[in-house]
Amino acid sequence: MEIINKRRSIRKYDNKIIEQEILEKIVRAGMQAPSAINQQPWHFFVIRDRDKLVELSKLTAYSKMLATASACILLVSDKRHVKATSMYSQDMAAATQNVLLEATYLGVGSCWIGIYGRVDRMEKIKKFMELEEFFEPFALVSLGYPENKEDLKFIDRYDVNKVTYEG
Ligand SMILES: Cc1cc2nc3c(=O)[nH]c(=O)nc-3n(C[C@H](O)[C@H](O)[C@H](O)COP(=O)(O)O)c2cc1C
């Protein structure tokens, strides 16, 4: 719960490099997510190349932070592993949340950039990343050490009106 409360979308980063070991831990966390019939339909592209990050930052009006991120992870679903077709997007969302939480735990700021469900964004990413046909873009997660520690402040979103206890 402590990490869940601490996680915030961080869009301003200092320029410190994220070590390979840290990136691997973040990806490992993604792969630990639950998935329908344990299909694990994901693949993770870890992007560190500055030029690529800058290009990706131009994808939407809401992905500008990638230009100054130290890295980003592109989560894609791998259709070769999708068996429960109605469920795989939920698997991907669970993996994305795990990535955000592990990044927070390791002191790395992150922000989920939505791709799946927006055909224009999905197509742009496919083209730019030259993805094979069986890969379908789901989300980008920008990563970098937070510039301002205050951006990590806890906001209590508990709303008693959004819960019903039965019985
Ligand atoms: C599916 C999804 C798509 C999102 N897409 C973007 C995005 O494109 N750009 C962005 O800056 N933030 C994006 N966010 C982050 C939300 O804006 C953010 O989670 C929300 O404002 C709550 O703030 P917090 O993450 O700091 O708690 C996205 C979050 C989700 C779950």
CATH topology: the name is NADH Oxidase
Mean pLDDT: 96
Name of the CATH first level: Alpha Beta
CATH superfamily (homologous) name: NADH Oxidase
Globally, the shape reads globular
Record the strand order, biggest sheet. 1-2-4-3
Number of helices: 5
What's the helix and strand layout?
Elements: H1 2-6, H2 20-31, E1 42-47, H3 50-57, E2 71-78, H4 88-105, E3 109-114, H5 119-129, E4 135-144
Helix pairs in contact: 2-4
This protein binds flavin mononucleotide.
Flavin mononucleotide (FMN) binds at residues 8-9, 11, 60, 62-63, 111-114.
How would you describe the overall organization of this protein?
The protein has helices at 2-6, 20-31, 50-57, 88-105, 119-129; strands at 42-47, 71-78, 109-114, 135-144. With 167 residues, the protein is of the alpha+beta class. Strands 1-2-4-3 form a four-stranded antiparallel β-sheet, sandwiched between helices. α2 (20-31) packs antiparallel against α4. 32% of the residues lie in helices and 18% in strands. The chain has one domain (2-162): NADH Oxidase, CATH 3.40.109. Bound molecules: flavin mononucleotide. Flavin mononucleotide binds next to β3.
Write a concise synopsis of the structure shown.
With 167 residues, this protein is an alpha+beta fold. The protein has 5 helices and 4 strands; from the N terminus they run H-H-E-H-E-H-E-H-E.
List keywords for this structure.
single chain; 167 residues; alpha+beta; NADH Oxidase; four-stranded antiparallel β-sheet; binds flavin mononucleotide
